[in-house]
Amino acid sequence: MTSTDPETTDVLVVGSGIAGCAAALAAAREGADVLVLTKATRPEDASTDWAQGGISTTRGDPEGFKEDILAASDDTAEEDAIDVLLAEADDAIEDVLLETLEIPFDETEDGDDFDYTREAGHSMRRILHVDAETGTHILRPFLASLDDHDRIEIRQDTAALELVTDEGRVHGVLSDEKPTGHPIYAGTTILATGGVGALYPRSTNPDDATGDGIAMAALAGADVRDLEYVQFHPTAYDGEDPFLLSEAIRGEGAVLRNGDGERFMPEYHPDADLAPRDVVSRAVAREREATGEVVLDVSPLEDGFAAEFPTIAETCRDRGIEGEQIPVAPCEHFLCGGIDVDEYGRTTLDRLYAVGECSRTGVHGANRLASTSLLEGLVWGLRAGEDAVGRESEVVDAPDLRNSDPALPERFAAEKFTRLRKTMDEYLGLERDPDRVSRAGAVLRRLKGEVDAYVRTRTSRELYELRHATVTALLITRAAAENTESAGCHRVSEDTGATAD
User: Fold this and answer.
1) How far apart are alpha carbons 136 and 203 in whole angstroms?
2) Active-site option among 118, 250, 277, 288
3) Residue 362: left if φ>0, alpha if ψ -120 to 50, beta else—which one?
4) Per the CB 3.0–4.6 Å rule, which of 9, 103, 271, 435 could disulfide with 275?
5) Where are the beta strands (DSSP E) in 178-266?
């Protein structure tokens, strides 16, 4: 290929978490040449690397697992999607994680079985884990394995700016490799861009989780669904630079206490500290408001906190957190909705797929069950990658981006992000009032207008991330405004009088 020839590939994957890696592996196994684009320059930039708890298995009881998923979702998850997940869950784990990657999941002391743990919403111990940093132990060997595959190229520190479309068909993306965008044409394009954590001031996700895939797909005309269902994790460290305190800690016996030292969750739900995440998050928020703080009391752990969760305990020590009571508060964690897809990850646009957190499969409904995100990403990634093979790339006219004006004013993007996050935090948090959601929409529309004015004549990753974040925030706000019924993560409440600027 000469320097003037267009760049083409059989399958283009945007994102390098477990879903993107699984899609790339499956497509390459089918004989396709695969290009993986990722903004990440090291594994910890991907949400998968931040996943603590583990990956759920059926453990011989798919019906019980299905009941747990439905209950956690407030009975809104789609049974057909759950059936797909559970039919392929154990085979996918065996094939990819155990046989191909040889992930060293924790075992019992005698080594006769895996050391399955339990998390909130699960009726039994069914979760495979490696200490409380399972994502790290999955993603890093996964990326190393793909690096060694002769049909897969991983291009790091590279962002997708827009989809290349023609008459309802997606033909690839424009990347940020050139000042006015670099077109990459593909037979099929698979979005695996992760979630929306960067839209909130406190999140358990990487800073680059700006909703890129959702915004690009929506702007190209793809359907999105269930975006109002933004899940908050109840136990993130209540301080600067929050970090996640895995649900597995409560699964092993830790309990939540309010500022008066009282254990309060039994008053909110029969499953107490192991109630679904949305229930626990709202309870923590209310107890913090009423008593001043909530702590995670790890003293009940049978073998001690440091022995059972050494990595998290070390993080606590590094932050100067002493003792066995750790201050916690809810924190944005996962988007249950996203780009609408079918059982193979196919979107409503021809030759465009979406997998992982940016997609909406129907498995999670209004609230995700703990430790199902890695499983969903693995299963749908494999299905999408295999299904995406067999289309030839076509070169069409790519969007004409401009980069003619001076660089962005200093701190332009940072200040706009601060405004966006403040709006989302105050109006689209744990509880939403319709009037306040409407006000948020007005704020975000003005913000989008300001951002669009700069996008017309400037092309940069920073600006496009801001654009994607603003578009996705507006889509979340619109979905919240249209849904007046409380379910799972989306809790409709009365106006509290707060305002955003």
Assistant:
1) 18
2) 277
3) left
4) 271
5) 182-191, 224-225, 230-237, 255-258
DSSP annotation of 459: -
Q: Which of 25, 363, 358, 94 is nearest to 224 (CA)?
A: 358
Spacing of C-alpha 370 from chain mean position: 13
Helix ranges (DSSP H) in 359-408: 373-387
Q: Which residue has the tokens 């399958």?
A: 11
Bridge partners, residue 225, by sequence: 338
314: left (phi over 0), alpha (psi -120 to 50) or beta: alpha
In this structure, the dihedral spanned by the alpha carbons of residues 99, 126, 328 and 300, taken in order and rounded to 10 degrees, is -120
With 90 as the cut, is the pLDDT of residue 86 above it?
A: yes
Tell me whether residue 277 is one of the annotated catalytic residues.
yes
- Distance from C-alpha of 173 to C-alpha of 468, rounded to nearest angstrom: 14
3-state SS track over 83-131: HHHHHHHHHHHHHHHHHHCCCCCCECCCCCCECCECCCCCCCCCEECCC
Strands 34-37 and 224-225: unpaired
Angstrom distance (rounded) from CA 16 to CA 38: 6
What pLDDT, on the 0 to 100 scale, is given for residue 445?
97
253 close to 125: Cβ distance less than 8 angstroms: no
d(C-alpha 47, C-alpha 213), whole Å: 14
3-class DSSP state of 267: helix
C-alpha distances out from residue 266 to 250, 256, 328, Å? 13, 10, 18
CB 492, CB 484: distance < 8 Å: yes
Phi-psi region of 373 (alpha: psi -120 to 50; beta: other; left: phi over 0): alpha
pTM flag (> 0.70): yes
Candidates 89, 31, 172, 33; CA nearest to 381 is: 89
Give SS3 for 201.
coil
Q: Mean pLDDT for the chain?
A: 92
For 50, 184, 315, 461, 471, the CA distances from 295, given in Å and listed in that order, are 22, 49, 16, 39, 36
pLDDT band at 49 (very low <50, low <70, confident <90, very high): low
CA atoms of 251 and 119, how far apart (whole Å) = 5
